[in-house]
TrEMBL record:
It comes from the Eukaryota. It comes from Galleria mellonella (Greater wax moth). It is found in: Cell membrane. Keywords: Cell membrane, Disulfide bond, Glycoprotein, Immunoglobulin domain, Membrane, Repeat, Signal. This is Lachesin-like. PANTHER family: CTX-RELATED TYPE I TRANSMEMBRANE PROTEIN, DPR-INTERACTING PROTEIN LAMBDA. One of its GO terms (cellular component) is plasma membrane. InterPro entries: Ig-like_dom, Ig-like_dom_sf, Ig-like_fold, Ig/MHC_CS, Ig_I-set, Ig_sub, Ig_sub2, Ig_V-set. Residues 1-28 form the signal peptide. Residues 32-129, 134-223, 234-333 form the Ig-like domain.
Amino acid sequence: MFPSSTKAAWWLATFFSVFVTGEMPIQAEMEPEFLQALENHTVTQGRDVHFTCVVNHLSNYRVAWIKSDSKAILAIHTNMVALNPRLSVTYNNHNTWKLHVSNVQANDSGTYMCQVNTDPMKSQMGYLSVVIPPDIVDTVSEESTAQEGGSIRLTCSATGEPPPTVLWRRDHNRPIVFRHDGGRERKVVDSYKGESLELSHVQRTDMGAYYCIASNGIPPTVSRRYHVEVHFIPQVKVTNQLVGAPLGSDVELQCYIEASPKAMNSWYREDGKSLVSDKLLENPKLRILDSVVNEYSRWMNLTIKSLAPGDYGTYVCASVNALGKMESQVSLHKIELNMNGFGAEEPMVSGAAWQRARNLPSARARPAASHAHQYFLTQHLPPQLYALLLTVLRYVNTI
Ligand SMILES: *[C@@H]1O[C@H](CO)[C@@H](O)[C@H](O)[C@H]1NC(C)=O
Ligand SMILES: *[C@@H]1O[C@H](CO)[C@@H](O)[C@H](O)[C@H]1NC(C)=O
Ligand SMILES: *[C@@H]1O[C@H](CO)[C@@H](O)[C@H](O)[C@H]1NC(C)=O
């Protein structure tokens, strides 16, 4: 509490000051002033945001909101000028005005100004930055199928703010292979940056899922899966072209097939006149095991149980798809088991083929000398030479 004498002195001073200078004392009419800076906001599209403008000593002046870049007056006091239902202004009946922007859109970004109509006017500015998570634009689905040696181009257009980066990857972290110069040059990468992925001289190993991943730091990151398909004539390879097995044993003929698009795979028998039997079907004697290796390769192993004399001969593993047909042959021949060092319980090796011995017949009377050579030689000769030898031996046997 001031003593009343001091109060009287103040009034006196005021009176004198007005009298002398002709101006009102400062306390009675202070200029409006901002109490804090207008904020800067970074907002995800669709969210709400507000700017806060705090003004003291406003007296008869008004607070207005202006979009600086377009110079559009948005609001004066709490009266909306802009015809934008997403904008509103609130006032706390004291010194605080808030400009609310609901469901923020990309075109709301820019500089906002809180202005007081003094002369000269007083203002402060804040920046609204609108960010948009990435999105992958639906484009016409691109051709992602080619024949081996052809080209494939995948494109992925992404939108977002800031503009997203597009990265390509393969599933299982398999490498992306770029081939140039007629396929002679290869560049192998884990990922590739760019909206368009161009694969030329494609090989079957390029087949599979590719992902385009768009990111701009604003979650969520989005991705799209593409499926690259490479077509080629089937390739068929039997593990062994010559397989020897004793009567009564089980033998497995192994066939490895690569094909795309999907192929019809089967085993056939071929008789002496090159006529092909019907497709072999599973039955108590035959078992066909089909095992997938990858998208375009598989094993198709034929097991013939308890070999009978009529089971020897030529077997054909065949694969046919839209691009063509390929086959590979196995010649299954009989071997005798009563030779030195080849016990009935031991698996036989013939050109790297293996068989499982089972229910072996009792030792034969006739010692098959030629077969003894086969046993020995098959472990050392390449299959081609062995085939030749076998043909000669057969010829010798028939005369
Ligand atoms: C807003 O951003 C501008 C320019 O980037 C900067 O000068 C200003 O200080 C920022 N305001 C606040 C409150 O951070
Ligand atoms: C801003 O964008 C919204 C939504 O896209 C639209 O409705 C509005 O008309 C746009 N406003 C201006 C001033 O362009
Ligand atoms: C067929 O044989 C191959 C080669 O030995 C083997 O890897 C594959 O697992 C076999 N498939 C089946 C179904 O037995």
